[in-house]
Write a structure and sequence with these properties.
The structure is a single chain. By secondary structure, the chain is an all-alpha fold. The chain has 2 domains: 1-57, Homeodomain-like (Arc Repressor Mutant, subunit A, Orthogonal Bundle), CATH 1.10.10; 61-218, Tetracycline Repressor, domain 2 (Orthogonal Bundle). Helices cover 82% and strands 0% of the residues. The protein is globular and about 60 Å long. It starts with a helix and ends with a helix.
Length: 219
């Protein structure tokens, strides 16, 4: 029993140190970006010596990946919970998550140092991309069910909507939308209404109609 208690305390301490490192890293990455941040800076911010970080993470890229993975997992949970209320709620949950957590959008897009394409390493990139694909595919399935269009068309429109929402978030966060007289959430709702009202697009509706006509003829 004593051994189990010690093991539990050790695990709790390890989890505490890991979360402290991640919290410190978030601040360091926000200030210096991924490229200029160092493990020494992260350790100092967390109140540890640099060697302590290696007990939990093998590199600063691994720390960044852990931060981004946590962000994507929270996004997925928010979207999944909203799906029960329909497609519009699910898409708005995506938008609101990043509207409420602007720093996580910066984190996800590596915007701490501009908009150029960036990555961590092939393994981490694949893992993080898979998490993002899961969210997008979840939204696409919800949209397909709500509009009755083929999944591939719903997936294409989901990617378009996600890109539109991210653009609105960036424009809104930098004050450009306000200067132009618009609010990001209003634009997103308008775009969603267009998609939901049109059944994604004319080509998709025609495909569904042809499929229905064929089925009726065969019957």
């Amino acid at each position: 029993m004593a051994t189990a208690a010690r093991s539990r305390r050790r695990d709790e301490l390890g989890a505490f140190k890991r979360e402290r490192i991640l919290a410190a890293a978030r601040e360091v990455f926000a200030e210096h970006g991924l490229d200029r941040a160092t493990l020494r800076q992260i350790a100092a911010q967390a109140g540890y010596v640099a060697g302590t970080l290696y007990l939990h993470f093998e590199s600063k890229e691994a720390i960044y990946g852990a931060l981004l993975a946590g962000s994507l997992d929270r996004l997925a949970a928010r979207v999944d919970a909203a799906r029960r209320s329909g497609a519009e709620s699910a898409f708005m949950a995506f938008h609101r998550y990043y509207a409420d957590n602007a720093e996580e959008l910066d984190l996800g897009l590596y915007l701490f140092r501009g908009t150029g394409r960036r990555g961590l390493n092939p393994g981490l990139d694949q893992e993080l991309n898979d998490r993002l694909r899961t969210v997008v595919e979840s939204l696409a399935s919800t949209l397909a069910a709500a509009t009755g269009v083929p999944w591939r068309d719903a997936h294409r429109e989901t990617v378009s909507l996600a890109s539109f929402m991210v653009g609105c978030l960036i424009m809104g966060g930098t004050g450009r939308l306000g200067m132009l007289g618009y609010a990001g959430e209003d634009l997103v709702r308008r775009r969603l209404a267009e998609v939901m009202g049109s059944g994604v697009d004319d080509r998709s509706r025609n495909r569904v109609r042809r499929h229905g006509d064929k089925g009726a003829g065969e019957a």
